[in-house]
Amino acid sequence: MKSQYLLAAYAALGSSFALAQTVPAPATVDKNLGRNLAAQCANCHGSNGKSVAEVASLAGVPANVTIQKMKDYRDGKLPATIMHQLAKGYTDEQVALIAQYLEKQPK
Amino acid sequence: MKNNLINRRDFVKAAGAASLVGTGIFASGCATIGGAAKPKVVVVGGGFGGATAAKYIAMWSERGIDVTLVERGDAFVSCPMSNLVVGGSSTLDKISVAYGGLDKYGIRRVKGEAVGFDATAKTLSLADGTKLPYDRLILSPGIDFMYETLPGLATGEAKNRVLSAWKAGPETVALRNQLTAMKEGGVYAIHIPKAPYRCPPGPYERACQVAWYFQQAKPKSKVLILDANEDVVSKKGLFMKAWNGQYKGIIEYRNNQEIQDVDARTLSLKMSFGEDVKADVLNVLPPMRAGNIAAMNGLNNSNRRWCQVDWLTYESTAVPGVHILGDSLQIAPAMPKSGHMANQHGKVCAAAVIALLTGQTVNQTPMVANTCYSFIDDKNVVHVASVHRYDAAQKTMVTVQGAGGLSADANALEGVYANSWAKNIWADMLA
User: Which of B92, B96, B42 is nearest to B71 (CA)?
Assistant: First the structure.
């Protein structure tokens, strides 16, 4: 299931290696994918990652910090109430796109 | 600001070029910038789905699309958190948000009741006769009740006596008032219809909130949950723990409790099997279907109850050019009818509608996530979460295996997060 999805994600991204690192996405990639994916975070973390309440803002956070946190949540290294469950829903490529988008948002 | 203007002009140029082919919107005489007409989107319903879609289309298009939001209410009143008003630890004021926050995005707000649309002429009709032209129409009308299945609730008087309070607002307060007026030692009964219905864990949360209130104020009173379903529909283990723990002796749960009708005069339920059940406060959630504007205009192509959509765009499979969000949808597998979900629908739809109106490619890999918090008492909370991805082969949303889950136990930290969630999602829709 997971590998099928990874394959599908790679195919959709147009390249099997482009997003493995936190480098800018190539032109063939939907330029709004990061924005669209990051919009899922807004319900708890605020529009464009800017929280208006107790939960942490993600806007302006360096991408590598967000990527590492999501990895640690997924692997159970960071204690969480809910993020360990949500982090497992996204591929490394998707997390990178989300993190890169949020990094560029004003704090 | 200057940047915005440049972006806006570029965007409008692209939007105009794309829409020129086929739609002929230049003839509609709408607002123009630099001579090019903006595509028009009309959104019906200022709830979790509609307000979010309106804001995100205006925000992401940098006002390149002309957005009108039609809403009948004066302010948004949130269903999530409304059970706290029933339980007495919150107020209607605290769960209400004004619509004025949307003005800064250039969204035109129209107060009124949408009653129909002409999919050929591409106009939406309001009850007062106003017609609003659109290039894309987005409907997010929530649910309406199938009162025809409960003849005993046909009159307004009966509906006022046996409340649903399943649309937050005056009924939420009215139910609270019934509970505070109830005699010590009385019985509050809630009837839950067969799934699917709005907010799967909501009725069980409400039972907890009423029990919490009884514990403080009327400790000899009882809560009776009469569930038409075979079993607790959501968060079963977590709710059962509360019912067998802190609410033991107060809450009684009965499954397979189908009803034939309601007697509002005697506050009793006519059960399909067994004797009538009488209560001092009777709270009935009637069976639900897509909201009226969708149900009355041929969009309810799933069992005549719910609306089927293309999950890439949320465009109706019945009527082109009309998109539907939120609780009115025929849900994808394991996708709850929740405000959080409707908010996420709104964003996928917003991105797709912008793409469709500007000649861009629609995202073929949309994802949505759900988080649903339930209050066990005034502070301790449990959650259920899930992540959903588009499956191209099945053409539906499916859950990402291995992701999502439940709270280990009710806890106060998630109470803080639940309150924070409410503030952020309300701002994500309306600020």
Answer: B42
Mean model confidence pLDDT for chain B: 93
Question: With 60 as the cut, is the pLDDT of residue B23 above it?
Answer: no
Number of domains in chain A: 1
What are the pLDDT digits (tens) for B251-306?
Answer: 999 999 999 999 999 999 999 999 999 999 999 999 999 999 999 999 999 999 99
The whole-angstrom separation of Cα A107 and Cα B18 is: 34
User: Do residues B121 and B28 touch, judged by C-beta distance below 8 A?
Assistant: no
Please indicate whether, in this complex, the C-beta atoms of B344 and A43 are within 8 angstroms of each other: yes
Structural domains for chain B: 2-72+112-144+289-361 (3.50.50.60), 147-287 (3.50.50.60)
Asked which of A100-104, B19-23, B104-108 is least confident by mean pLDDT, the reply is B19-23
Cα–Cα dist B178/B163, whole Å: 10
Helix axes B339-358, B50-60, angle to 10 degrees: 40
- Give CA–CA dist B14/B21, Å, rounded: 12
* Chain A positions in Cβ-Cβ contact with residue B367 (cut-off 8 Å): 37, 40, 89-90, 94
Measure A74 CA to nearest chain B CA, in Å.
9
Q: What is the pLDDT of residues A62-94, one digit of tens each?
A: 999 999 999 999 999 999 999 999 999 999 999
Which of B:403-422 have CB within 8 Å of A? 403-405, 407, 411, 413-414, 416-417, 419-421
